[in-house]
């Protein structure tokens, strides 16, 4: 498989990736960031998988059941046809609580004829460290390991257990199922019960999707992206994961491989703005609560990222026994970037707090808490905004005065002023307004470069950086300001490669990137749209959509030459930005239609 041709299934507790031939090649249980049960994605030899094998005569097609997270893989050989409906159960139980157990279900639907298939069931627990042994019991198949630590997983099925485990031919004459769970079941599953779980899960997703508005343009892409973002949200705490995977490389054969099964605070403002705007207020509210719960003591610095269960320590390790995706070592778990100092984080957080006050009604307790956080952030920014940091791209070498970080320091104070006005707390306003003007003047003086006619990556630099395109989104500069327009044009000239954008071109800790960071291209499209180049922006957008995989999913990166998807998958940031761009175009068309009808 040359591309990330996978579908994602999940239940807001964990997720699995399934190849376009119906092979489960990545799954962690019981939660997103647990150790893997299947990791063929990261090592084709020893990683482990759950595959449905058919003869070459079969044609295989894959799609999602419309407006759901149920993935359907169809196998057809003329008169012999069957489907695998893959899902993780999620629905309301009789008490009105969510039923989302740590299990995945493969409902095998007989369509016609007498199709034949074999199963390769090969779990490798604990990231395939040590041996996993599998045994047949009366009611289930159990797999266990005790090399690194004790762990087990259970498989229930309507098919002959020996035939399943030995890879024998199975003739399908009626519907059947596989249910793989982290826990032993109290009640034995049946095909009927499993079918009921499938229908209940479908209803859950149809109801959830029904809250998303319908758009005239790009409705399918918006809906699929929204479902994908929901699949990357962790119900228990409200965290949203950056991606469902670890160590998928930004470039094949290189070492830019990171664990993304964590929650970056930076994504928060975008999640709240986009998902709240789509009507999914609960995802946004829970994420906001997740952040508030993490707020440190008044003199403690905020981290850029946390574990999905609010862990602060994300120690990075390498799993040297795994060969990596397409041989790209190392495979990492944990992420050392949690220790980095990134000054933009305070602006991100203040933007979130301001959005909370504007978007949602608040009670006084929450209001007091948010006001306390606001004062604390201003205190920290006023003392640290002049210091260099690692920047949005998490450079692991020396600190610099990154323009994006400075702009977000300005955002922190600008939003604090707005929050103070909303809460009618004006005592500190005068002081804060002076600070806001001071930071803004500093950026105009030091980040603008007359030679390149643009705001640059860092103070005193001539290098361009896609992140400065966000100056307009955060309200630092107007879209029609000549300095912003010329920055967009300079970035297009320097960083665009056949319509895909480099994050930056100056060499970093690992050399010049050979893949495009997907979100940067969306930022660029958004900026073209904002400066009035709507047709050009739309052309770029429609071309970019063709680089998604067969199910409309995007990863973190796209290879400049081959256009293959690279980096962790699916990537929340990419889908957030896709939604934002798609809504812009859809809204623009709606406005134009209204104007035309008024003229008529």
Automatic annotation (TrEMBL):
Q: Per UniProt, which keywords does this protein have? A: Hydrolase
Under InterPro entries, the record lists:
6-hairpin_glycosidase_sf (IPR008928), 6hp_glycosidase-like_sf (IPR012341), GH15-like (IPR011613), Trehalase-like_N (IPR045582)
Top-rank taxon, per record: Bacteria
Pfam families, per database record: Glyco_hydro_15, TREH_N
Which BP terms from GO are recorded?
carbohydrate metabolic process
Provide the GH15-like domain boundaries: 217-582
GO molecular function terms noted in the UniProt entry: hydrolase activity, hydrolyzing O-glycosyl compounds
Q: Where is the Trehalase-like N-terminal domain?
A: 8-139
Protein name per the record = Glycoside hydrolase family 15 protein
The protein's organism comes out as Maribacter luteus
